[in-house]
Amino acid sequence: MQREYIYKPNGEVPPGEQLPDGVRRVALGVEYCGARLRGFQKQKSAAQTVQAYLEQALSSIAAEPVTLVCAGRTDAGVHATGQVIHFDTRAVRPLRAWVQGVNTQLPDEVRVHWAKAVPAQFHARFSARARSYRYLIHSSPTRSAQAAAEVTWTKHPLDLQAMREGAQYLLGQHDFTSFRATQCQAKSPVRELTRLDVARVGQLIVLEVSANAFLHHMVRNITGVLMAVGRGERPPHWVKEVLDSRDRTAGGVTAPPFGLYLVDVQYPQEFALPESEPGPLLVPLALGGLSGQQPQGS
């Protein structure tokens, strides 16, 4: 017997069902600098979160309480150029109001770049088919003052070729228990990595990783392991040993949040969401563009 559909704001809507009369669903493309923010998710004890700022701004423009759902929650200090959210509202507004109007209500660290009316079956989290992150590393004897909160600094030279060799062991579908945070609540540790590129872009070393979904701290833990390989502390095949151990303690140090960017979320073409450059501005390359960069030595 089929269960009766009961509408929940921002919730999944089964095929064939619709939103209540007068309710519309809107998706937004969001960018933020996480340096002074306490992560994406709203917290009882902290107002400086992306969700709190967005919900306050959206509620102001809609003249009604608005809550939202995001494609992927990011930790404190982590940035995004390609975050996607959606919300349900009864407010009738032109799409530009959800961009320009909302931006007037937001702090400088958070910006909306596009808005689109989406069908009831669109869900920012559950409709996503793939996500991509970039991790930026500045390898230099001294730390840059200008980009202190936008990249991760290391004083050690990194062997990019060794990092690339180590990265190959992680491609494909694996049990990523060794690369998940101990507090990760995902039911399964199995994920499929479709891209893991390492290249030099200007003065930066950039990792680009794409997967169907990610575990908590997964990208930062992968980065920490590859940086150990790049410093020459471990050989490339150690990455496979860490993966096969299925033991988080075997994987070394979690890389800092500062260099991590959520740059893209992929959805089925039927939703026709606007396309944008993955960024950040420090890396003016299209998604997948790192594979064309030469893995120069340290």
Q: Hey, roughly how much beta strand do the residues contain?
A: 25-35%
In whole angstroms, the N-to-C terminal distance is: 63 Å
CATH fold description of the largest domain: Alpha-Beta Plaits
Shape from CA axes? Answer: globular
Gross CATH architecture of the largest domain = 2-Layer Sandwich
CATH superfamily of the largest domain: Pseudouridine synthase I, catalytic domain, C-terminal subdomain
Quickly give the structural class: alpha+beta
Mean pLDDT: 94
Low-confidence stretches: none
Q: What is the CA-atom radius of gyration, in angstroms?
A: 20 Å
Tally of individual helices: 5
Please, how many domains?
A: 2
Q: Determine and state the CATH class of the largest domain.
A: Alpha Beta
- Strand elements, count: 10
Reading the helices and strands in chain order gives: EHEEHEEEHEEEHHE
Instruction: Please describe the biggest sheet, giving its number of strands, its sense, and whether it closes into a barrel.
Output: 10 strands, mixed
Helix content: 10-25%
Catalytic activity: uridine(38/39/40) in tRNA = pseudouridine(38/39/40) in tRNA
Subunit structure: Homodimer.
Keywords: Isomerase, tRNA processing
EC number: 5.4.99.12
